[in-house]
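Reviewers of the previous submission asked for a worked example of the structure-prediction workflow described in the proposal, so we include one complete record here. The input consisted solely of the amino acid sequence. No template or homolog information was supplied to the procedure at any stage.
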Amino acid sequence: TDRAVHWLSKDLTTGNVVERLSICEDFGLDLLREKILEQLTFNRRALAEISHSPKIMQYPKLMQDLLQMAAAAAGEPETKGKRQRKA
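From that input alone, the workflow returned the following structure tokens.
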């Protein structure tokens, strides 16, 4: 399993990430899948490229997961450079 995880995480690009995420889901590699999704969520350029790719249409569950993670990341409070108010 470790070799498979290593191979799947090596040389990831926006051109192959959809298939790799699908493989992770098929083989129950949930931790790797979550890490890849997390990285995509925080890389706006990669996320935009993948969301416009025709390949993503073949994976509705992946589209849903990406949307949920992006929405959750957008809802996280930004604490850098902002002062928190006292209640």
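Residues 46 and 52 are 10 Å apart (CA to CA). We consider this example representative of the routine output the project will generate in years two and three.
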